[in-house]
Structures are given as structure tokens and as C-alpha cells.
Amino acid sequence: MVKPIQENELVNREYKYGFVTDIEVEPFPKGLSEKVIKMISEKKSEPDFMLEWRLKAYRHWKTLKEPKWPNFKYGPIDYQAISYYSAPKKKTNLKSLDEVDKELLNTFERLGIPLTEQKRLTGVAVDAVFDSVSVGTTHQGELAKAGVIFCSMSEAISHHPELIKKYLGSVVPHSDNFFAALNSAVFSDGSFCYIPKGVRCPLELSTYFRINAADSGQFERTLIIAEDDSYVSYLEGCTAPSRDQNQLHAAVVELVAMNNAEIKYSTVQNWYSGDKNGNGGIYNFVTKRGKCIGTNSKISWTQVEAGAAITWKYPSVILQGDNSVGKFYSVALTNNRMQADTGTKMIHIGKNTKSTIVSKGISTDYSNNNYRGLVKIMPTAHGARNFSQCDSMLVGNNCSANTFPYIEVKNSSAVLEHEASTSKISAEQMFYLRSRGLDLEGAVSLIINGFCKEVFKELPLEFSVEAIKLLEMKLEGSVG
Amino acid sequence: MLEIKDLYASIHESPILNGINLKINSGEVHAIMGPNGSGKSTLSKVIAGHPDYSVTQGVIEYEVNFKKINLLELEPEERAREGIFLAFQYPVEIPGVSSSVFLRAAFNEICKHQGAEEMDPLEFDEYLRKKMKLLDMDEKFINRPVNVDFSGGEKKRNEILQMAILNPRFAVLDETDSGLDIDSMRIVADGVNKLKSKKNAILLITHYQRLLNYIVPDFVHILVNGKIVKSAGKELALKVEEKGYDWLS
Q1: What is the DSSP-derived secondary structure letter of residue B210?
Q2: For residue A15, which phi and psi values (nearest 5 degrees)?
Q3: Which of A143, A361, B111, B216 could form a disulfide with A369 if both were Cys (CB 3.0 to 4.6 A apart)?
């Protein structure tokens, strides 16, 4: 059952999603080996090609070392101390979402994501992922009418193997990096979206990721394919219980956009970030990349990163099609002892490709917030353009903010602009606003809204309201 | 309306105000003059509730709905909502926050507290434009971030615009004349004069007599070493202009 909120949870108002759902699970033994990977694949009744794919990734992973270049300090991760699969026991053959375990439905409802037929959100289709598995996807019928496939990755592997064979790993190959290799070996679920030619997806699609089990990691994979002339807007949210131990989350997201297709991908990340002294929290090592294969295609990443003890992610766009457009809008907030090393990569290959980068970093308390970005203009990218803006805001005297912009230009017709600024919320600003009748909270919210407005306006409306509230809650107590 | 009684205040443990007594009634304009470092700005900040200053003794009685409250017990925002306003000597820049968004947020907070109807963005825009005319301000101002890249004169004008919008009962103008050329000063002074009424009161803090030609005070007080050493009518300002402050201390 879902435990009632304890008094001490109320004191720690910063994180209201820290509860644990008490549910019977089928746990895997801790540790990673070919045997464990076979067990995962078997558990999911996967076709042979998937097992081969996983094992290849695993063998490659064993040759890799964890990257040491991010600007982080953390103890070693023991990959043999993690359980790579944890799923709630479920009844077989559910006919509708209403038959899903009550505790799971309650959990998601408490997270603000009602799944049942009567209560579900209108206008948004949700895939709910709990630990290692998807527990259900709403609005599937409505989407199917439009020809849109939106389902869990496991379902996609069994029902659409031809699409999986063609696209899985086509943007982020298993050899890409340490965490992508690990994910390729052990990923357990995630979301799959396919938007056919000429279809404008009638609903917002979204996936909600919830880590619940202790000692287990979450390794999910998302794949979105937008065929010619199609459009989709997708949003993901994430939370986890407050625990003293660190937990690993290593996800991979791949986007594929064909001619004139547009994918908008938004993230509101609110993993548990540890306590004031830096104990506990999620280690969030994520590889996200989109490929604009078609001409005039567009991919935009919008992220609000407000949680996780460590955030390592660089949602990127490969601008292969001529005239394709890549965008990255980011707000990264760190408080307490959080560490973030996040940014983007824009790889210009096609002619007249354009990219925009707007990054807003807010650091408070003893946290460490880094922007790291690469703009690469290949010799073929005639007339490529990039605009980058990286702003940092410091609250208090003990936090730090760094910017690491990398630029590689191999075509002289390219035009790149880079702007950067660092500012501080000062006591004088707070007094000025308060002397006009705004309370502490109102004053902070006004400043933060002003600082982040270019990013917030890229989010779907209801999520932008939620994102603003989330930042305000996190900043409460840090300012003043 | 407001009475300061035996007020002592210090910053970082060094005493600045040493026993101020001052009574201000509705409809009155008072001016405080004094040499550098006499405590003029400290007085204005203590009235507004700046957290860096600690009051070691005394009260500031303020009449709200026929009841006297001690202003010193309120947070700065509560004072503002009760009708206290400080026009800053050095207005603060708030990057990224547009002037209209800021002003509407402040205006609505005060409305909410006083039980008046809040304004939506369209209504407020109309109200704001009307007040801007009063101070001869450029339209572009509306969407510019608060005080960012404003000239010294624009910042001071912006303070008085805020006063016009928030419509305080008791306004302290801290050296609003400094940094203004003669034309801007005339515009600002005209604006203040139009805002003056029987129901509100104004405390002008200034170095120079110049401003007092345009906003004529009912009383002039001379502050030296954190104490009011002399109070009289407006003619006192002229005398100070002529003789300096030395003869008073």
C-alpha cells in the first residue's frame, strides 16, 4: 500500500514525491553478467536478435571505463551491487488499465498521473513506467485511429520487430559511450512512438518514469520515429523515493525525424536529489540524441532539470538533412549538494542547417552546475548557423557555475554566435521587490521566471506551470 | 499618520540613528536635510524595513484604519501593503523581469491585501500607460527589464512611476533629485505634486534646497549625527543653502 505521508516528510517540503510504494516485486539477484542479461531477455520473451544485440553491447561495455571528464566528485559505482531488473508482480493479460494493480494506480495518481479510464488526463496520452516495466499506456485506441503507435518498448519489440531492427541503436549505437553500452545491454522497458507519414499526432505523448525499488537501477530506452511530414510533441517526467543510498538511472533516448517532420521533446526531471548533506539521490547518466535525417526536419529538446544528485546529459541533434533545425532549451537547477554537468551537442552536416541553444543554470547552496556544449560544423554544412546563449545565476556564496562551450568549425561559410552571462540574486534585489509588496516567494518567483522565460515558453502550457512551481519549491529557503 | 519615537538604529553594530523624533500628519510634506553621513538614507531604509539595519530602540507608530501599529514589527512587504513606499536613492536592476510584469505583480499584491479587485494584464496596461504619461515616459519602457540599462534620470523617474502606480499613503523619497537634470527634475516634481493629496504624506530626503523649490515642504528638519537638530518651515532650507550645516551642530 501507499504509505501515508509522515510528519518528517512534511518538514522536508522540497521533495513531495519521496514516498515508497509497498508492492510485491519479482526482484533479480544483484549483479551483472551474461546470465542476467539472458534472464532479462527471457523474462520479456524477446526474439533472438534482441538477445544478440544486448550481449554484443554487454561485451563492448566490459571493455569501457566510466568517463572521468565530467566536473563531478562522487564515489565509485559498484555495478555488481545493483539489481538490473525489478518489476511488480502482475496479473497476466490485462484487458484494460482499470485492471492494473490498485497500488500502482494509486501511486501514479499520487504523482499526479491518473491512468484509469475515468480519471486520465485529457489531451495527453501517458505511458507509465514503474521500475523496470511499463504498467500501462493510456489513449492507445484513440492514437491507433490516427495510425500513431504509442506503446512500451517491450510491446514494440514483440509487435513491431521490423521497426526496432531498423531504428534501435541507429542514433545512439551501443558503442557510443559507457552508459549507453550499459543501457543497451540491460534496458528493461521504455516508450516507443511511431508517427506515420503526414500525421500530426492528435495528443501530447508522455512517459512518466518512477523508480520505487531499493538497490535497483532504472535503465529505460525511448525511441521516437517521425515519418515524412509528421509532428509529435512528447514529454517525460521522473520521480523517485527519498533514500540514503544512491541509485543509478541510465537511459537512452533516440529520435528520428524524416523529411519535414518535427519532434518536440520535453523533460521535467525531478528525481530525488539527496538530502542537505548530499546523502542519497539518483545518479542520472543519460544519453539523448536526435537525428534530423530528412530535409527541413526539426528536433527540439526542452528540459527542466531540477532533481538527481548527479545529472550527466547532453541531448543532442545530428543535423543531417539540408535545412534541418535543432533546438535545445534548458533550465538546470541545482541546490544542496547536487552536481549537474549538462548541455548539448549540435552536429551540422547538411546545408543551411540551423541550431539554437539556450541554457539557463541556477545554482544555490553548495551545488555545482556546469554547462557543457559542442557546436560542430562539418565541411559539408554550407551556410550553417548557430546561436548559443548560456546564462548562469548564482544564489548565495557557496555554489559554483561553469560553462564549457566547445566549437569546431570546418566550413568557413558558417555563422556562429555565442552569448554568456553570470548573475546573482542579491539581497538588494530581494529588498527592492519586497519593498514593493512582494513576499520572499513572490520575489524569487518573479526573478526566476524572468531568468527562465525563454525556456518555459517552449514547454506545453500545463507543464510550464508545473515546472515553475517545481523551481520555486526547490528555491524556497535558499534565498533570503 | 506616522510618528517616529526615540528611534535608534545601527548597521553592523555601528550606531547611525541616535534618537529620532518626528511626527507627520496626513496631507503634509516634510523634508529632511543634512550633511553626508548624517543618517538620512538610514532613516529611509529603516522605515521601509531593510534587513541590514537593526533598530536598537524606539518605535514607528503608523495609523492603519484608525489603529496605531508599530511599523517595525512588519516585514518590508507588509509595510508596502499597508501603504509605505520608498523611492530608492539607487534603484536596483532586475535583469530578465519586464517592468510591466513587475509592476502588475506588486500592484496586485497590494490590491489583494487591501481587498481591492486585482487587474488583469489588459486593464493594467491601460492603467500603466496613463500613469506613464504623467511622468512623460517612453512606451518602450513597458517591456524593458526593471532598471536595466536605464540612465540615472530614467531610474529616478521609474521610482516615481512606481509611486504613482502603487498609490502609497506614506512615501519616502530618498534623494530623488540627485542625478537629475533640471528638466527631468521638473517632470519628476510635477509628478509628485500631482500625487500629493490630503490623504497621503511625503517625506523628502535631500541634500539640496533645489528640489524644494518644486516640491514645497510644510516642514524642514535638519539631521546631524543621527539626530534632528532643528525643525522649522520651508525657509530653513534656504538658510541651510546659504550658511551650510556647521552653525547647527
Answers
A1: G
A2: -130, 100
A3: A361
Cβ–Cβ under 8 Å, residues B198 and B229:
no
- Average pLDDT of B59-68? 91
Question: In whole angstroms, what is the distance from residue A21 CA to residue A211 CA?
Answer: 10
Digit-coded pLDDT (tens) for A150-183: 999 999 999 999 999 999 999 999 999 999 999 9
For A125-160, where are the alpha helices, taking DSSP H only?
Answer: 140-145, 153-159
Cα(B49)–Cα(B44) distance, integer angstroms: 9
What is the rounded distance in angstroms from the CA atom of residue A276 to the CA atom of residue A284? 18
Closest approach of chain B CAs to the CA of A160, in angstroms? 48
Q: What is the pLDDT of residue A184?
A: 97
What's chain A's Rg over C-alpha atoms? 22
pTM: 0.84
pLDDT single digits (tens) A264-315: 999 988 888 888 888 889 999 999 999 999 999 999 999 999 999 999 999 9
Instruction: List residues of A whose CB lies inside 8 A of any B CB.
Output: 423, 426-429, 431-440, 442, 446-447, 449-451, 453
- Are A365 and A277 in contact by the 8 Å Cβ rule? The answer is no
Contact with chain A for residue B105, Cβ under 8 A: yes
> Nearest-CA distance from A391 to chain B in Å?
11
On whether the B2-248 domain is CATH 3.90.1310.10, my answer is no
As for the ipTM of the complex, it is: 0.96
Does the beta carbon of B144 lie under 8 angstroms from any beta carbon of chain A?
A: no
- Whether the Cβ atoms of residue A131 and residue A216 lie closer than 8 Å to each other: yes
